[in-house]
């Protein structure tokens, strides 16, 4: 890695056609127009990810008409340079992670000519408005994390070559136009999450076989999940969370052979989760299932648990980590751990999650969940589940976070849970559990917040002692817990403040590297403070 000021002599290399200096530690100030006008034969320039501040006089200096690729990501650039206007043959422009404010100039649509520009990234700036797009040859368009307002740019519908579209984390609003359904025939990834889009999702055209990721989370969308999504057989990620969608569970999604992440949380879905009668083995590839904060009722969907093969016997790769990729970007996910949301900028393909919390599921927890022995996060909290905690949950040897709090579970805590070595976050609070809390290497690290609200529990870490007649739960399996439904049990963290950023980084590193036990104390303290406030005010609100 190079550092220091960029040598002045570089501007004297007049025959240079390619200059790549990205991902170094060059510092100081660099005047872009002077550099471009000096290197008259330059066709490719990449200065991305350095420590210098790139400035411009915004004069119309000479630029090689044959200029093709310009990478200026993370260069502290504050304006959109006028010199770009002369780049009629530019096909790749990266201005991401700069400090560009305000409207993009109207002439920006001339860059690259009508069909020249293929790649454009304006993401992570402070842009408030865009010109009418004229880049009909664009294949990749990234403008996420700006302050862009207004309706969906209908000119995007004319981009017949577009593969990847990311306009998430902006201030777009209004209806999604019907023409959106037309461009899905060639799109591989669409992320329009965290905006203010309203109305229903337009129907997709018959041909959406290339679509791998559709993210519309964090809007104000209404209506039911599109049945036309059943044609998107390559779909890996469907995230419609945090909207106003309604209807019953779209069981037909189980027929999508490649679906790995299904997120429908925080909507208005209701009713029983009924498996489709026409799909024999639904959701075979699913690794992330989040249906939390809805109005689902009835018993937990046993048939779906039976078929979640991607959550069983997953072989962990010791080589380079593999992340869930949608084409164009990695999928990021927010997981709730004891009431605290942690964001993963990237999620490992072998990271398996089930979150059915904050619904009205009733009945018992089926033993068959213990067969999902690669499950890492299981959250069934804030429901109306009854009966004992299944002994078979001790089969979840990879689980790191288990939350069964705020239900009506009864009986003893099975000793099998104390044998799970990876268990780092546990909440069994506010149930009807009784007896002695089992001893175990991991169980001894949990504080009383993990068990409070169960008046019949005793033993460490609770203050109430057990009587000499109270027996500790056995670690051995018992016959009446070994079989159910043919299943045999076998032993087998975004904000701008420094504090928030630190929390996200810590959460990501801890969870993604399987070391979330360090987070347990923080989560417990947070939950304890919340509960104390609720008690003082005598208000008991289900989270």
Automatic annotation (TrEMBL):
May I have one GO cellular component term? plasma membrane
Tell whether Coiled coil is among the UniProt keywords: no
Transmembrane domains' residue ranges: 487-511
Keyword Membrane on entry: yes
UniProt membrane topology term: Single-pass type I membrane protein
Q: InterPro entries given for it? A: Leu-rich_rpt, Leu-rich_rpt_typical-subtyp, LRR_dom_sf
Keywords (A to Z) from UniProt: Cell membrane, Glycoprotein, Leucine-rich repeat, Membrane, Receptor, Repeat, Signal, Transmembrane, Transmembrane helix
Family annotation (SMART domains): LRR_TYP
- Spell out the subcellular localization from the entry: Cell membrane
Record GO biological process: defense response; response to other organism
Q: Which Pfam families match?
A: LRR_1, LRR_8
Q: Which family does it belong to?
A: Belongs to the RLP family.
Q: List the protein's name.
A: Leucine-rich repeat-containing protein
| Annotated organism of origin | Tanacetum cinerariifolium
